[in-house]
Amino acid sequence: MSVLPPPEAVDLEVPVLIIGAGACGMVAALAAQEAGTEPLVLEADPVPSGSTALSAGLIPAAGTRLQAEAGIADDPARFAADIQAKAKGENPQALVDLLAREAAPAVDWLCDLGLPFSVVDDFDYPGHSRHRMHGLPSRAGRELIDRLRSLCEARGIDIVCDRRAVALYAEAGRVTGAEIAAPEGTERIGAQTVVLACNGYGGNREMVAAEMPAIADAIWFGHDGNRGDAVTWGRALGARVRHLGAYQGHGNVAHPHGILITWATITEGGVQVNTRGERFWDESQGYSEAARAVLAQPGGVAWTIFDARIAGVARQFEDFRAAEAAGAVREAEDIAALAATCDLPEDRLAAELSALSGTDRFGRRFRRAGLTPPYRAVKVTGALFHTQGGLEVDDAARVVGADGPIPGLFAAGGAALGVSGKGDSGYLSGNGLLSAVALGRVAGRAAAADATR
């Protein structure tokens, strides 16, 4: 990946070029078109996918119409405070305020475009003081990608796949397009503005090992196309880069099935035990930091244990239903059967499950008095989902260098600095799609405005 001077001639000239057709890129495209330009979206894969398709597709937003209809009192200031509290104040306040402020208008806008969102209000996500996660009926990111793609197609927005950007063009400090590797050879595209929506660098194992060694050996559960292109280009252009050690992990991936198990199995009262049948941490902290906690156990695995009631809540998620169909979710009528099916010491397991009330030795407070048979259990491991550090941007999603915004260059989603602090424990549920959708919309509008000047 490199930055090159623009060629003498290009194959195509567009007002707004968007690199990446995940949720971020397609939201940016819809916003750019609405602002009066015709964007071109490039995607390296055969079809749009990205990390969004591997997620639950939930977007956190405060003050939406859907919340109001559900009687949920919320506002951007409360949301911003929750984001900063989870990250221990490590985020730039201006960026937090921007995303918290833009999230609700973005979700309302997507609803107006026909996406059937609803608020997840039957369980709590760690760190959120209100029910503010908005999801589609399947509670799956694949549905979000498919619906955004259908919207783009219906509006005549060109998404060209099997096209990987390998270099940016820049002249006199302004980004002017990109060089593309296509099946037929090299393509040269000129653009008045470029939006980087190509996510982070979780698929670049060398960068991961260098920037976040604590998670380097974890399963990579993100998209392989996330190779750090935005960071590489940004550095070559003199952009400011921040918090490259920040990431979203997840400590609830079914092993060896590789299926994400919703954290509702924990927030509704479930727990994790290691292969000795012992609990080992306060699971209510969050699923991102759970990755390291689980990987530190014998064999790098744990058992997530819950009951039939909690399974009923979890079943709203397509991934959980897939895990049940794959046999990843084991059932047991009592503790003896649970210990046998999980190959755990019955006495230790029984002692742990009998102590799930009040405030436990780890400081976790249980709202309900323990689990009740029949039980459910899933063998899980820790995984890296996506990185959270990236290019610094201003309130118009313009990439910022030492002397101010870099002309013609915008970034959003995982390509831009997120709001998850410096490590993994600052990740508040939904931060990834928050940046993809809220900042993606900002970037699309701003790139269009810049292109039409």
From TrEMBL:
InterPro entries: FAD-dep_OxRdtase_2_FAD-bd, FAD-oxidoreductase_2, FAD/NAD-bd_sf, Succ_DH/fumarate_Rdtase_cat_sf. The keyword Flavoprotein applies. The keyword Oxidoreductase applies. Keywords: FAD, Flavoprotein, Oxidoreductase. Its cofactor is FAD. It comes from the Bacteria. Residues 16-421 form the FAD-dependent oxidoreductase 2 FAD-binding domain. Signal peptide: none annotated. One of its GO terms (molecular function) is oxidoreductase activity. One of its GO terms (biological process) is steroid metabolic process. This is Fumarate reductase flavoprotein subunit. It comes from Jannaschia seohaensis.
